[in-house]
Amino acid sequence: MSALMKLLLLVPSSFFLIALIKFLYDCLWTPLRIQRMLNSQGIKGPPYRFIHGNNREVAKMRQEAFSKPSGLTHDIFPKVQPHMYSWIKQYGKNYLCWDGVRAELVISDPELIREVLKNTEKAFRKRKPTMFLSKLFGNGLVLIEGKKWAKQRKLANHVFHGESLKNMTPAVIASVETMLRKWKGEEGREIEVFEEFKLLTSEVISRTAFGSNYLKGEKIFAMLNKLSIIMTRNVFKTRIPFINKLWKPGDVLEAEELEQGIKDCVLKIVKKREDEVANGEADSFGNDFLGLFLNAYHDLDEENRISLEDLVDECKTFYLGGQDTVNSLLAWSIFLLAVHGDWQEKATREVIDIFGNRNPHPEGIAKLKTMTMIINETLRLYGLSNGLMRRAGGEVQLGKLVLPADIDLLPLNIAVHHDPQLWGDDVHLFKPERFADGVAKATKYNAGAFFPFGLGPRSCVGMSFATTETKIALSMILQRYSFTLSPAYVHSPVPVIALRPQHGIQIIFEPHCINDA
User: Fold this and answer.
1) According to the CATH classification, is domain 30-516 in 3.90.870.40?
2) Residue 236 CA to chain centroid, in angstroms?
3) 173 vs 286, which has greater pLDDT?
4) Coil, helix or strand for 207?
5) For binding heme, which residues are annotated in this chain's numbering (predicted)?
6) What is the sign, positive or negative, of the torsion defined by CA atoms of 264, 270, 276, 278?
7) Helix (H) or strand (E) holding 500
8) For residue 482, what are the β-bridge partners?
9) Which end of the chain is more exposed for a tag (fewer CB within 10 A), N or C?
10) Sign of the alpha-carbon torsion through 201, 205, 208, 212
């Protein structure tokens, strides 16, 4: 055999050998090294399984949990995150598990949670997003970091705080009035409120942030919802990078199509606003969310300018965040008030005392103490359940633990929100009085014990907007109706982005006698 032939055979063989060594290093040596490192510090967990990690176990446990009826209980942790519930019971509050080959430290110790999310030393960064999460949020606030995040967060702060928030109140009221007019013919009949509130919150975010209405954004909401569902069903599927490049499953192809469709629809809304200014129909891009971000896109100062891609991705983020979170919060609040009639009566009395039959106004909204307690307890029992993923930027100390670089960390809100050691033996009962003296006293001044909108510098920018919209909608409903849970209701909360009722929430509304006069 000639030297040239030997060389031709040797080169691909060498590449294959190098690729094999790297594959085994990434998929076997590194996971086992991390497992030994954390085990030696007292952090246990389900053992690493080659390539798949614990994903097969998780998928099986979730399938079993979701297939069983749960009964009407607020003890939902074992149902919505069965693997996490089981492993906390088995391995302790902080345990190590495996998302494929990636190590994940799940944290339900409030002190460690506070340290990770406050991130004073800048040691904990956002985890590199999965392919589906990236398609959903792109370069939006949820995923970006550094100077880009600071710039876009500053813009978003202008939209959802202070005077801007007050100016949104009339649009929220008008949207709720539209929904309530539709309900007039349905009094005494069953109304599925999760779908009703989906339309309401879609209308509100369309009006307040984009100066349009639900019908103009309908396709965007529908595509974002489909993309959210695709992402959720792929969370615990193991993907091998080089195989994915050769063959794309149906979900990947559909996600790519949806991503492009959402982008095209958002660009039409952006262009319409630009054309209004260009044609003299408007003298500025406006002061709403879209207007402020369009101003930044057209800014002559490169330091302040954002790209078209950033603009589109922020629009996607706020279409989804402004609709999904409030939709779930409103639906679960109504559900809990329907089940707990005593608190419905207390909330109604407060609303009538403050507003009478008038529409809610900012000064009165600020005085809704009972409703604030109810909303906080709803967020504790039925808030986000997927945790807030971070990763260690380098080798770092967390409490007494030394963590390897690039390990993922998952501060788990549902675990601390349902922890009897933090909230007492009545942790699974709906007791808004826990929050009678505010969140700080309810948590004994432990910030890591209650974080429904996150914690620290990356807490949800739309938090005040979400709670204000919820208070307005609940106030206007309570002014007009008393309500009960329909016998048709089946209790089955499921985690998507926010926690959703798998079979909807069926409510029967009866008008107050005072409104019949």
Assistant:
1) no
2) 17
3) 173
4) helix
5) 460
6) negative
7) strand 499-501
8) 510
9) C
10) negative
Nearest-angstrom CA–CA distance, 319 and 217: 9
The answer to whether 315 is a known ligand-binding residue is no
φ, ψ of residue 95 in degrees (nearest 5): -140, 160
Q: List Cβ neighbours of 175 (8 Å cut-off, separation of 6 or more).
A: 200, 203, 204, 207
Per-residue pLDDT tens digits for 402-451: 999 989 999 999 999 999 999 999 999 999 999 999 999 999 999 999 99
Phi-psi map region of 489: left, alpha, beta (phi>0 left; psi -120 to 50 alpha) = beta
Domain boundaries in the chain?
30-516
Cβ-based neighbours of 286, under 8 Å, separated by 6 or more:
211, 273, 294
How far apart (Å, rounded) are the C-alpha atoms in residues 446 and 200?
Answer: 35
Specify the amino acid at residue 288. D
What DSSP string describes 441-490?
A: HHTTT-GGG--BTB-GGGS-TTHHHHHHHHHHHHHHHHHHEEEEE-TT--
Four-point Cα dihedral 319, 324, 325, 329, nearest 10: 140
Buried-exposed string 182-218: b where 16+ CB fall within 10 A, e elsewhere? ebeeeeeebbbbbebbbbbbbbbbbbbbbbbebeebe
